Amino acid sequence: MTTCPSPPRRRGTRDFGPSKFGRYPADPARYSGRRIDLLGRSLPAAPGSDPADAIRRYLTTAQTRSARELAAKAVVLIHPRNRVGEIVWPTGIDYA
Question: Which end of the chain is less enclosed by CB atoms within 10 A, N or C?
Answer without folding.
Answer: C
